[in-house]
Request: fold
Amino acid sequence: MKFNIDGRLFQQQLQAVNKVINSKNALSILDNFLFQLEGGYLTITGSDQENMVTARVEVADSDGDGAVAVPAKTLLEITKEVSNQPLTFSLNDATGEIDLTFLTGHFRFMGINADEYPAGEKPDADAITLTVPSSVVMKGIEKTIYAVSPETIRPMMTGIYWDIHEGDITFVASDTHKLVRYINAQVDPDLDTSFIMPAKPASILKGILGKEEQPVTIIIGKKGAKFEFGDYTLSCRFIKGNYPNYNRVIPTSNPFVLTVDRETLLNAMRRVAIFASKASNLVKFELTQDGIRLAAQDLDYGTSAEERVMCEYKGNDMTIGFNSLFTIEILNNLGGETVLIKLSDPARPGIFEPQDQETNENIVTIQMPMQVIE
Reply:
């Protein structure tokens, strides 16, 4: 088994696949890449048992098809040092010894029998296939992944919920403190299905899609899905369980509307949040017809801050508290120049949304308020 490959391209594919490999694995074979050479194409595979990423790349002067597992950390370290050179990869089938040759030298190390590497799951016979633009998948993950819960007590909340209908794909994420619902109607899937995608493969998919502009083919089975795009494939298992009814959580009657420049409010929040209590991160929004007064204090250190932000507010005067870290996250990810914050009373969730929604898109974020003690 032998082939030649551009060092920079080789390292790029290795880095993409390496995103799925854990720093510590229950199976030592998963510390390796699986290389499979066939018909002048090299397939590089990485896995953590739950998820699998493959990259396919054309190579030159290939001689002899075959397969071998290669230590991932070692290969990444050495290709980093010679990424600007052509490389020749040679495997001694009898001994398992690998020789990686570059312009001025070579590296020699041992490979591992490819038969030890776990095989990927075969697709269900009744799997559903859906093809969508990469931009739809990219935006859906970007707009929601920050709201995924890090707590494993409720596993369903640790992933992004894909709710696919005739006419749109809805992406939802929530950590119970905030919830994001992003609807994209650029495509008509012409089917009804749903699944919960774990945060790790969603993050990997977002990272690789940033380099691709080709459509994504999604093969949806009972236990998992496969995403095929360009030279890459990502397979993941779903999170088991029923996702809560997210539409029921979103308030339908928040009559008081605050209209404010997103960047102005975001920058003010960042400044005031420095002096918020480290235990609660509480920032008070004091709303009047004249604008917003943001206020925070940390009684443990005797510090406080306040800042006024000009805005347009239609509603009753109100003081409502929000977790500053969550609010900053929401404003960072919401997009648009102007934000609408819709409220009803200090004990009910606030709705954050851009004043101008993108064509065929709708994004709504809700945040639970915090108790304000005067």
About this structure: The mean pLDDT is 94. The longest strand covers residues 51-58. Residues 123 and 221 are 7 Å apart (CA to CA). The two ends are 74 Å apart (CA to CA).
